[in-house]
Specification:
Helices cover 26% and strands 27% of the residues. By secondary structure, it is an alpha+beta fold. The radius of gyration is 20 Å and the shape is globular.
């Protein structure tokens, strides 16, 4: 990951230089984690650059803010335009997109209502989140000692900045112990998700994934993979999954905007299947990447092309 070629950041309706993209130290988000964010990708396709499932990402951001009683001071259309402006200002033909809506400089204290709602949109070049070689070779993961939040504590369906302190604990523990990633269980000891990815298991020819009630983020890539898998004839079941299924599954893979589709080759040093990407994972990878790169028809309407600016006459 590099920020060296980032020139501009969109902040509260205007583009500012990268060096000037700052918030005040008294901002509410800095003290209390009162921010919502998204992660989307601009892909370079054969037909030009396009954002993958932009409308769904924007809607999820607005939904996250609604849960936390934060009113975004822009319409969804204006927000979309801001994303395109940020991409265009940096001259990227492919990049990662990170909008953040946060409580800014106002009255400190837990009560957030006296702090304004500010908006930032950043874009940068970001390759494969878990490594280029991971897409084929897979990654080694562990079951974390840190659980996901219990129901009615933090809203897992909101993509809130504060929720990711839990993710950081999962990730740091995994790295410290020699793994690439960690898998969190829910408060009942069932499989939830990775630190920043949803998870799927293949067992007996069926594809299993935890339900939304399993304190997981409603992943947009997760939803995409379920759609692709069902249309390919696979049975996809959303259900509670016991931890031990991780050790006997035929295949396991992560999904996410950053991780895309990354196979898991071992869990707690127990080899998954043949210890490499399995056939179902491989097929879903190929279908997903063919679609986002323009090699296959965008039959779901998931790609939003970069708009062409009208030229002055």
């Amino acid at each position: 990951m590099s920020y060296e070629d980032v020139k501009k950041v969109w902040m509260n309706g205007r583009l500012v230089d990268f060096a000037d993209a700052k918030i005040h130290a008294f901002s509410h988000v800095f003290h209390y984690g009162s921010g919502m964010f998204e992660g989307a990708r601009l892909y370079k396709t054969k037909h030009g650059s396009a954002v993958f499932r932009m409308d769904e990402h924007v809607k999820r951001l607005y939904d996250s803010c609604k849960v936390y009683r934060m009113e975004i001071p822009y319409t969804p259309r204006e927000f979309r335009d801001g994303i395109f402006d940020a991409i265009r200002a940096n001259g990227f033909d492919e990049c990662y997109i990170r909008p953040v809506v946060y409580r800014g400089l106002g009255a400190l204290g837990v009560n957030p209502f006296n702090s304004p709602v500010d908006v930032m949109i950043a874009v940068w070049r970001w390759g494969k989140y878990l490594g280029d070689e991971a897409l084929e070779g897979g990654v080694d993961v562990c079951v974390s000692s840190w659980n996901r939040m219990a129901p009615n504590t933090f809203p897992a369906m909101a993509k809130a900045t504060g929720n990711y302190l839990n993710s950081a604990l999962i990730k740091m523990e995994a790295i410290t112990n020699g793994f690439t990633e960690g898998i969190a269980l829910d408060n009942a000891g069932r499989i939830s998700e990775g630190s920043g990815e949803n998870i799927f298991l293949v067992y007996g020819g069926r594809i299993l994934t935890p339900p939304l009630a399993g304190t997981i983020l409603p992943g947009i890539t997760r939803d995409s993979i379920m759609r692709l898998a069902r249309d390919a004839g696979y049975t996809v079941v959303e259900q509670q999954i016991a931890r031990e299924m991780l050790y006997i599954a035929d295949e396991i893979f992560f999904t996410g905007t950053a991780a895309e589709i990354t196979p898991i080759r071992s869990v707690d040093r127990i080899v998954v299947g043949a210890g490499r990407r399995g056939p179902i994972t491989e097929r879903l990878q190929k279908e997903f990447f063919a679609l986002v790169k323009g090699d296959a028809e965008d039959r779901y309407g998931w790609l939003t092309p970069m708009p062409v600016l009208a030229t002055a006459r």
